[in-house]
Design brief:
Layout lengths: L1 E6 L3 E3 L12 E3 L3 H7 L6 E8 L2 E5 L2 H9 L1 H4 L18 E8 L2 E5 L2 H14 L11 H17 L3 H5 L4 E11 L2 E12 L4 E8 L2 E7 L4 E5 L9 H13 L1 H9 L4 E5 L2 E9 L2 E7 L5 E9 L5 E14 L2 E11 L2 E2 L4 E2 L1 E4 L5 E5 L1
Parallel strand pairs: 3-5
Antiparallel strand pairs: 1-2, 1-22, 4-5, 6-7, 8-9, 8-21, 9-10, 10-11, 11-12, 13-14, 14-15, 15-16, 16-17, 17-18, 18-19, 18-20
Amino acid sequence: MKYGLTLLFGLTICAVSGQGQDRVKRVFGFDPVILVRTGESVSGKADLEVSRYEFTYLFSSTESKAEFIRNPKKYEFQFGGACGRMGPLSGIGNPNHFLVKGGKLYSFASAPCKQTFEKHSEKLLEFDDPKPKVMRASIVEGKKLAERVLAAHGGRNTILNLGAFEMIHLGSHVAGNRTYKFESRYAFHLANGMYADGETWDDYQYGNATNGKKSCFVSKHKWDFEMHPEQVRSLTRKRGQHFVSVLWAIAKRRAHVFSSFDSPATLNVWHEGVATKLETSAEGKVLAQEFTGRGPNSFMGLARREFSEWQSHNGASLPIRWQEFFDGKPTSIGTSYTIKPLLDLIVFSPQK
């Protein structure tokens, strides 16, 4: 019997004792210590290896191996080996496509990914937004506006007691000459630190999940694996970008809120490393949201969501339809979700 983390989508992730599926051994054949230090590609030896997350690294000397063990974050692939061009939550890169840039080692899914990163790395790397420093008067006014926002969406206590629920979008997408049945899901149980998101294209399913203690990638037909700390941080930011997470953080008083005198109807929120702007009506209803995020081409830029429809869930008014923009250009004509109670929580449970 194995124990795994069971996700709402009916999958098992982060198995504690084996994944029950074949794993691909990814070997990086050049000494990463020498490569990062000097830029020189020196072949490693098969009897000098260290495995870390999804990669096995080879070393040319015991000294290099010892240095890597002392400070693996300095020499390993960034983002746990995810493709540098596609971002920390993308698939694992190919160790044959690698690059040292800014003293850090990156892997890529393909040669074109590597070429794009070489030219535009500053637009592809993501970081926490710095916590803003503002005047006390802006914080006072921001707290007043935050209370109006909470009241317009059901009230503080209602939002804190949302419980477990999921947001589901069903539709179709055309890619090339093929039309796919498409599903997009978000799941929340924020009081317990649980969050998941995922997509399904016909019968191929993938996503991300955290239960507050462990974070993993999910795939229906492929192995599942635990996230590297940099990927966990990226998932935390992604969770923090969702309006539900922002609203809950405000209600929980975990967010830094403030307003600006030149735009008094805009509530600025900072939490989980994400700076968000919420444009509100006179009553406090959130009409639009802006944050720095990853766009359709994986470049970082200004993401905007304009809300047009809401659904009541356990007394809270939550947006279920919005149009998305990226750097001022529309990227969707309007995505609509349905909110449902989440009956199967993300928990550790026996799996056959």
